[in-house]
Design brief:
The complex is a heterodimer. By secondary structure, chain A is α+β, with helices and mostly antiparallel strands. Chain A contains 17 helices and 8 strands. In chain A, strand 6 and strand 7 form a beta hairpin. Classes of the chains: A alpha+beta, B alpha/beta.
């Protein structure tokens, strides 16, 4: 079979007379957690070409955000990366606050940072647990999901929900930390420590695991940068770029933490970078709790924040204030802003445009795992079918975020 | 500082520049975009080696109608800028920057899918989030959010194994 011209620079099959088999893997495949389709061209079991099809979970996030008020976007942001919804909430709130030109209270910044880091650990636990179960380490998956459950309990105590938190607001949050947060956190972290150390023993020097992960899905530094990879994927290739360090937001510049780096850019490095990041997130949370200032978590600007229910029910000014904010929305001055936060998968950016009315004119989210999926083709060509599973697992494609 | 340097170096390409909320935005000429971006990437003073994001904004009644918006970042020098290209509504197009940053591949496909802006020189410009027979471009302001789409006939995957690709 003659080869199409576009394969000329790609892998040439070992024997030109071999037939190229076309195989569609997905969109609903038991080993890929997420709805995604790989259109494969195979020479035996070797991947000659891989066309990645995404979009099965497209719900029109950006379009729907234009239909309501700024505050009504928060529930949509929960559903981007649903493994770490607090970070999405915080990113969107920060973007709108910068566009309005308001600053939140000190306590608010600390609390947002603490919850972002708790979410990051939960996100990494989901990713690593699922990825290990796909290579056969089901025990690790259940250990990690159990640990994630402790963190979800923590998130539930703060926000009232496990996943769809809708917890941030422009100018603050709906809830402060509960009074017993410190004790809950200590209890959760004690069990998390146990799980992490168990999983480390089970996997990090496990021959079967290393054989599946090491030297698979490699990307060089230059390729990773060119393809716009961020987060663990970029850091595994040895590029020290973390939004928390490079463009600090909230109070990350006051925290002492390290950015774990890999050097080969393969799946094993990605796994390790994520694993080490969980320890760093713990460090940040412990420092933040120690330095947590007292005070309110929400500012009192009546143009931005809803008045207390007491005022709404007992005074006409309060009622009008409430009515205007609910019906017309927050009037965000015309302009545009790009605000990035470090999500579980990398740089999560919100580019928002306002025309001065109470509704967003354009809300664009830069989804980190969408860019990772864009580079998947590059990581897979020339590899075997089982490598798709580990590489795809390490990209941690979250449908809600990738397809929006 | 950075803005002054860029203005001094690319005076001819830049149509306007503004600083809003500590973010630098440059509007450039469509025809020279590719060389401008490549120079921004390769110039040791700027080193914009990272295309953070590429999207568009539809200003329905304005002329030109669309803004194609590039968010650039330099991982080495740690600075960001935003670059815009104004594109008119009838047959909108810009030059593709896939040759400058690999990330532009999927981002431009998404922008084409959502806004119908053609990227000249893109190796594989086809829809990415929507399906092939989707009618219209959903993020345009004249596409109603509750618009319905015709039902697509089922395609037998055995008869049509893989849709036409690159």
């Amino acid at each position: 079979m003659s080869l199409p011209a576009r394969w000329k620079n790609k892998i040439v099959p070992s024997d030109p007379s071999d037939e190229i088999m076309e195989l569609q893997m997905g969109p609903s495949h038991p080993a890929s957690h997420g709805t995604i389709k790989f259109n494969l061209k195979l020479d035996g079991e070797r991947i000659v070409d891989c066309d990645v099809e995404v979009g099965y979970l497209h719900r029109g996030f950006e379009k729907m955000c234009e239909q309501g008020t700024w505050t009504q976007c928060f529930p949509y942001t929960d559903r981007l990366n649903y493994a770490s919804p607090c970070i999405n909430n915080v990113g969107f709130a920060l973007a709108v606050e910068r566009l309005i030109g308001i600053d939140t209270t000190e306590r608010c910044k600390y609390v947002r940072m603490i919850m972002s880091e708790v979410s990051r650990i939960a996100d990494h636990l989901t990713c690593l647990g699922m990825a290990s179960s796909e290579v056969g380490a089901t025990t690790v998956a259940f250990y990690m999901l159990e640990a994630r459950e402790f963190l979800y309990d923590l998130i539930e105590a703060v926000t009232g929900a496990r996943l769809t938190v809708t917890w941030c607001r422009v100018g603050g949050m709906t809830h402060d930390l509960p009074a017993d947060f410190n004790d809950r956190m200590k209890a959760s972290f004690a069990r998390l420590d146990q799980v992490l150390s168990d999983c480390d023993k089970l996997l990090s020097r496990n021959r079967v695991f290393i054989d599946r992960m090491a030297n698979v899905g490699n990307l060089s530094k230059e390729e990773a940068i060119s393809y716009g990879l961020t987060g663990p994927l970029l850091r595994a290739a040895g590029v020290s770029y973390d939004v928390r360090k490079a463009h600090p937001y909230l109070v990350y510049d006051r925290m002492d933490f390290e950015v774990p780096l890999g050097d080969r850019g393969d799946n094993y490095d990605r796994f390790n970078v994520r694993f080490q990041e969980m320890y760093q997130s713990k460090r940040i949370i412990e420092q933040a709790i120690a330095a947590l200032p007292e005070g309110p978590v929400t500012i009192t600007d009546p143009k931005v924040v809803l008045p207390d229910k007491e005022k709404v029910y007992n005074s006409i000014e309060g009622l009008m204030n409430h009515f205007k904010l609910i019906m017309e929305g927050i009037h965000v001055p015309a302009g545009e802003v790009y605000q990035a936060v470090e999500g579980g998968n990398g740089e999560l950016g919100f580019y928002i445009v306002s025309d001065g009315s109470g509704r967003p004119y354009r809300v664009r989210v830069r989804p980190p795992c969408f860019l990772g999926m864009g580079a998947l083709n590059k990581m897979l060509i020339g590899r075997m079918i089982p490598d798709i599973i580990t590489t795809f697992g390490m990209i941690n494609m979250i449908g809600g975020e990738c397809d929006r | 500082m950075l803005a002054e340097k860029i203005k001094a170096r690319f005076g001819a390409e830049i149509l306007s520049a503004q600083n809003d909320r500590d973010e630098e935005t440059f509007t450039i000429d469509r025809e020279r975009a590719y060389d401008f971006f490549r120079a921004l990437r390769d110039d040791p003073d700027f080193q914009f080696n990272f295309l953070t994001d590429l999207t568009a904004v539809d200003w329905l009644d304005r002329k030109p109608r669309f803004d194609v918006v590039y968010q650039l970042n330099s991982l080495t020098l740690s600075h960001r800028i935003r670059v815009k290209i104004g594109v008119d509504g009838t047959e909108p197009w810009v030059h593709s920057v896939v040759g400058v940053w690999g990330a532009a591949d999927w981002l431009e496909r998404e922008c084409f899918d959502m806004f119908g802006i053609a990227f000249k020189g893109h190796p594989d410009l086809r829809r990415i989030l929507m399906y092939d027979s989707f009618e219209g471009h959903p993020l345009r302001k004249d596409y109603l959010y509750n618009k319905r789409q015709p039902i697509v006939p089922e395609i037998d995957p055995v008869v049509n194994p893989i849709r036409p690709t690159r």
